[in-house]
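Notes from hallway chat w/ T.B., transcribed later so I don't forget. T.B. wanted the structure written out for a chain they're using in a teaching module, and asked if we could keep both sequence and structure tokens in one place. Agreed to drop them here.
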Amino acid sequence: MKRFILSIFLSGSCLALAACADKEANAEQQMPKAEQKKPEEKTVHVQKKEDDTSAWIKTEKPAKLPILMYHSISSGNSLRVPKEEFEAHMKWLHENGYQTLTPKEAYLMLTQDKKPSEKCVLITFDDGYTDNYQDAYPVLKKYGMKATIFMIGKSIAHKHHLTEDQMKEMAKRGISIESHTIDHLELNGLTPEQQHSEMADSKKLFDGMFHQQTSIISYPVGRYNEETLKAAKETGYQMGVTTEPGAASRDQGMYALHRVRVSPGMSGAAFGAYIKSMK
């Protein structure tokens, strides 16, 4: 009889232990697994903005800044630069110690005749094509570079053009979004009032969208006149860029700055020689 009772007791204990084990297993399955950190992207950190120019290098003559001009990062015509060539250009800049600037840094450099590095460039893209996000942006992130996209106000989210979300994502990583007017009309063919409206409306749009003071405008197709320069100043911009060739300097006028057009077909070495020639 005692053996029978002992047998029942042991069987019950085993069942209880098994039940506890099942509960623990179920509880373990229900517990959320610790989140695993995603491997960090191997990219160079974007150079930080610097408003304090006290440590900048004073230039002996009025500062000159190559403002590189790109449009679409693709193939097809003289305004398009294929992604592979664009990457070769950025790699050359990175390996040769060039610092890429924001519009604010460019303004300080040109107006104070100081520069944050012996070698500086301002990288710009006109029109705001989707491939600026899909193809140029990853390359810029890879090398930790800043750049400026001149966006057409009414082209936002249109076919082949950037969306607001894409621009906001890039703006968090060193890409400045600036003005290419609202309608991309040739300004020298408009009345002074129309020019003023194109610039003011664009500035208001981007000021609000990015909580910024939009400071630089690129004139569509490089067309401008004296009224254009006047309107750019009156509507609150600090700088205006043209398609006139060469490095920018303040003696051109802060609203008529020259740019360095980058054409397709340039290898990294050819691009480098081209940039070095901009004295």
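Follow-up for T.B.: Confidence is low (pLDDT under 50) at residues 1-41. Might be a good example for the class.
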